[in-house]
Structure formats: C-alpha cells, structure tokens
Amino acid sequence: MRTVILDKTEVYKGHLLLVNQEHPLREHNTYHPIRLVPVNLEQKDILLEATTATLLSQLLQSIGGNNEIIPISGYRTRQEQEKIFNDSLLENGSTFTKQYVALPDQSEHQTGLAIDLGKYSEEIDFLRPEFIYTGICGEFRKKAAKYGFVERYGKGKETITGISHEPWHFRYVGYPHAQIMQDNRLCLEEYIAYIKAYPYEGKHLHIKENTKDIEVFYVSADLDKMPIELPENDSYQVSGNNVDGFIITLWRW
Ligand SMILES: [Zn+2]
C-alpha cells in the first residue's frame, strides 16, 4: 500500500466539482488554476479545461461530427458570466434569465468543464442553441458517457439542479462517472450524494469491464491533510466534489 495525502483545499479542484446555487465556486480556485486550451483550431476563442477539450474532440471525431456539431460557449471568466447574466436580464427579462443563465460563480462554465453545443445552422442561438435527440446529435448522445460527458440539466431534474432542461449543455465528469450517472439516471447533485454511500472505510463501488476493475469511493475531508491508503500498483484519480470531500477512482488492470 502507499499513503496519499488529500489536502482540504483540493475539495475545490477536479473533474467532479458540483457547481450550483448551493455550492458556488470558491476563492480557493485561484490556488488551483486550470489548464485551458482552445476547443479546436478554428475556434481559438472558445476555451476548455485541457482533458475536457481532448475528450470532446475525440468524441466528435469518433462520430464524424466536426462539421455538424458546433461548440458555442465553453470556459467563461467570472466577469464574462456576469456580463452574460446582466445582458440577458435586459434583453430577456428575469424569468427567462433565472431559468437558463446561472449567476456568477454558480456557472459550470467558469470551471472549463462545460460546453454548450449547437447543431450547425446559419443562425445559432447563443443562449439556447438547438441540440436535438436524433441524427448526429443523437449519435453524440449515445457515445457521450463513454467519453465522460453528461447532459447536465436533464428533463425532470429541474427542481434538483435549479436550472431548466438544457439539451445543449454538456458537462465533463470523466469515465466511469458519466456512465454510472447515465445508467442510474442521476444528475450530478444526485451522483455526488450517491457516491457517499461508498465511503473510504466501507464497501466501495465496483465497475467490472472486461479485464478491468474500476473502483470508486468517497473520502470525507475531515482533516486539513487527510491520509488514505491506496494499493501500490493501481493508477488512481482524485477529484474534489466542491462540497465536503473527494471522490477517488482506482483502475485495476
Ligand atoms: Zn451552458
């Protein structure tokens, strides 16, 4: 076994951050700057967190969707989110804005892990691009979880997410998390709660895949420096949940 130390400030860092009205982004994020890269060569002004950008382009390539599916909005600074919110208030009024535009620090777009996608057309709505459930958009949806993406604001989850159904807004959470969410019809709020039933000290969640065994569990951030023991040879990923702890993913081959 080897000891890994989880630092409490890293609760606010990682691919599984829950960002919503109840759990806004914190000042802490400035201690963990994300690596941002352009979403593709033609749209250098649209940035995403590096892994998110790589997996999105692999997913689009795998379905031959590069000309038909257009990234509309990726990473936003706090100032940009504030401007979009205020502009929408003026243009669309408060009912619409509260339904579709998050307040500054409550927007996933500030994490670099979210992307709004639109089906190619002459005119694409910036706030609510069309992204349907059939054709190339349907192909995208079928493969999204394997590449770590989920439709973040699903139909029927409005009271939990606090945001209206947004067929165009995808969030990178990574594999196998996206797959577990999809298979169990969980939105991110529910998934973060679900994983807590698999604590470090207890029974872990196992996903069997051919010769692979993927293990997922939750560690509560009880100490400023939280030591955990992990098997020597397994590769692992740690993500904070932006609430109160960490989600650990172990890959056993
Ligand atoms: Zn969005």
Whole-number mean pLDDT = 94
What is the CATH topology descriptor of the largest domain? Muramoyl-pentapeptide Carboxypeptidase, domain 2
As laid out across the biggest beta sheet, the strand order is 4-5-7-6
Radius of gyration from the alpha-carbon trace, in angstroms: 18 Å
Main sheet properties: 4 strands, antiparallel
Low-confidence residue ranges? none
Task: Describe, in plain words, how this protein is organized in 3D.
The protein has 253 residues and is of the alpha+beta class. The protein has six helices and twelve strands. The strands form four sheets. It has a four-stranded antiparallel beta sheet. It starts with a strand and ends with a strand. Zinc ion (ZN) binds next to β5. Zinc ion binds next to β5.
Summarize this structure as a short list of keywords or feature phrases.
25% strand, 2 domains, single chain, four-stranded antiparallel beta sheet, binds zinc ion, 26% helix, alpha+beta, Phosphorylase Kinase, domain 1, 6 helices, Muramoyl-pentapeptide Carboxypeptidase, domain 2, 12 strands, 253 residues
Write the layout of secondary structure elements.
Elements: E1 2-7, E2 36-38, E3 47-49, H1 50-62, E4 69-73, H2 78-100, E5 114-119, H3 135-144, E6 149-151, H4 158-161, E7 169-172, H5 177-183, H6 188-195, E8 205-209, E9 212-220, E10 225-230, E11 235-240, E12 245-252
Antiparallel strand pairs: 1-10, 2-3, 4-5, 5-7, 6-7, 8-9, 9-12, 11-12
The structure holds zinc ion.
Zinc ion binds at residues 73, 109, 114, 116, 169.
